[in-house]
Fold this sequence. Notes:
- By secondary structure, the protein is of the alpha+beta class.
- It is 32% helix and 40% strand.
- The chain has five helices and ten strands.
- It has helices spanning 3-16, 67-88, 109-113, 136-145, 160-187, and strands at residues 38-49, 53-64, 95-105, 119-130, 150-157, 191-207, 209-211, 214-218, 225-228, 234-248.
- The two termini are 25 Å apart.
- Residues 1-28 and 215-223 have low confidence and may be disordered.
Amino acid sequence: MDRRLIGVLAVAATLLLAGCAGVAGDATPTDDGEPDRTIEVTADGEATAEPDRATITVAVEAQGNSSAAVREEIAADGQSLRSALREWGIEDDQIRTTRYDIRERRPRPEAEREGAEPEYVGVHRYEIEVHDVAAVGEVIDVAVDSGADSVNRVRFGLSEEREAELRTTAFENAVENADGRARMLADNTGLEVVNVYTISTMDDHVSPYRAEPMAVTEDAGGGGAATSIETGDVSVDVQVHVVFEAETTG
């Protein structure tokens, strides 16, 4: 380990070790139940896995000379989109609306002076949950062919069960790292770790993998371009704060 890091950690340990200077004996609790000597450390833990879920964000867009016309076009394209996805195998509860907006867009002042009429634009954005990550490109093609005007994002993640498993592994790694740091601090300050006094979590988050759709492979059936998406690992990161009981050595 880098000597500068050991020096910094040793200073931190000196500041965090309660009553250790010039005191010998066991790490017996004080009258208020707290240990006589402690070592406090914060450590990170990470676990990664291949995704088993994907979320595709697509949008149906329209523009016209009235809000009613825009609404009707969005509704028709949205119905076509849902029908095609349902026929492919996507259930209704796997399709969620994340944005619906129709607004007036006025012409520039010079165009308005020439009699230009306001234009209306609208968007209906959907999130599509896909349980087969290998089929993401195919689902994108189905969506685009059936009415989606844009693909905004593809996010790869984990099912609840897989995420829970990965979080457990990440916590185990964090605790193991905390134990290693505490023992290193103890070795450099004349102490010995004897027990865990308290432990708490400080951070816990999942980092999904995000990808951009790319048409790079040839569709063997129709000769057109089929969408291909690269996937990457999803990571779960946690942070723990552990207070260890310690005693002097020798």
